[in-house]
Write a structure and sequence with these properties.
alpha/beta, Rossmann fold, N-(1-d-carboxylethyl)-l-norvaline Dehydrogenase, domain 2, 2 domains, eight-stranded mixed β-sheet, 11% strand, globular
């Protein structure tokens, strides 16, 4: 494949996408806003590869070959030859619109623009830009391609198009992602949060409800997930599971459980109270857990462990 890929952003998703594309031998041009951002991106990019080397996924000399495919720039003009763009900037419609505008100006022949939005649908992005002539030029080439972090390890992407997306584009995007050994799913119609986040937050809402009702502690919820049904769902799906259990039993459980499962529409107090106290998670040292004395390296290893098996593609053998 001779396509060049443009990536917009310098955060964790952007650097991981760069690992994914360079690891498949694609010339990759990453647009960042500053020299400091460029240094951060290079560091994160190399850190990802260092972990992969330690894990035995590839050898050090292969990392150097992959690195030759990466080009970092602050000038959109350097991305003029890119046919595919992957946008990974802040989850803000205005910020994303400014990126689409610059792509339209610098790269009029772009084939597709894949936004890594985690909740904003493409129609939502475009509705505030209806009068923008630049964005109008590329509106038919814009889709959502939402990855899960980090996308070079987690193979799942969910794809969503707008009413303006040209016919066949989303299928082309899915085919492209399959060449990167990803597992794309095409949504039949857009919805905020798409599939993965809607499922995760339905579970998160019920988990918080169980704790608020005094039924269990956070640790008990996490233990239940790690040692009951979550391991099963790494090899089968929920509908496969329900079929195997028997739909008659499933229906009885629906009638029993649906009336008591949380359907709240606002932020639960258990979450609001933590935020008000400045306990925002690992970055603050506290959240639902106290992270100040935890071994974060061991935690990172646990996070990555289920996904190493998906990194089974062949890395490029010669430099760009």
């Amino acid at each position: 494949m001779n396509r060049s890929v443009g990536i917009i952003g310098s955060g964790i998703i952007a650097s991981s996408l760069a690992v994914l594309t360079t690891g498949h031998g694609l010339d990759t041009y990453v647009l960042v806003r500053s020299e400091a951002a460029a240094r951060r991106l290079w560091k994160t990019f190399r850190d990802h590869y260092s972990i992969m080397i330690r894990q035995g996924i590839l050898k050090e000399e292969q990392e150097k070959i992959c690195e030759s495919f990466l080009h970092v720039t602050q000038d959109y003009a350097d991305l003029a030859g890119c046919s595919i763009f992957m946008e990974a900037v802040a989850e803000d419609r205005g910020v994303k619109a400014s990126v689409f505008r610059e792509i339209a100006k610098a790269c009029p022949e772009v084939e597709m623009i894949c936004s890594a939005s985690s909740a904003i649908t493409p129609d939502m992005m475009l509705e505030e830009q209806e009068e923008d002539p630049w964005i109008s030029r590329i509106a038919d080439r814009l889709i959502i391609a939402h990855p899960f972090n980090p996308p070079h390890m987690v193979p799942y992407f969910e794809l969503c198009q707008s009413a303006q997306t040209r016919p066949g584009l989303i299928e082309e995007a899915a085919a492209f992602l399959r060449t990167l050994h990803r597992e794309p799913v095409i949504l039949k119609k857009p919805t905020p949060g798409f599939i993965g986040n809607r499922l995760q937050f339905a579970l998160f809402r019920e988990a918080m409800q169980l704790v608020e009702e005094g039924i269990c502690e956070c640790e008990d919820i996490d233990r239940a997930l790690r040692y009951s049904f979550c391991p099963r769902y790494t090899s089968i799906g929920i509908f496969e599971h329900m079929d195997f259990a028997g739909l008659g039993l499933d229906e009885k459980n629906c009638r029993l459980l649906f009336p008591i499962i949380s359907d709240r529409k606002d932020t639960p107090p258990i979450l609001a109270d933590l935020l008000a106290a400045g306990k925002t998670g690992t970055a603050a040292g506290e959240g639902f857990y106290d992270w100040r004395e935890r071994d974060m390296e061991a935690y990172a290893q646990r996070v990555n462990e289920p996904f190493w098996k998906f990194m089974d593609w062949e890395f490029p053998e010669s430099e760009s």
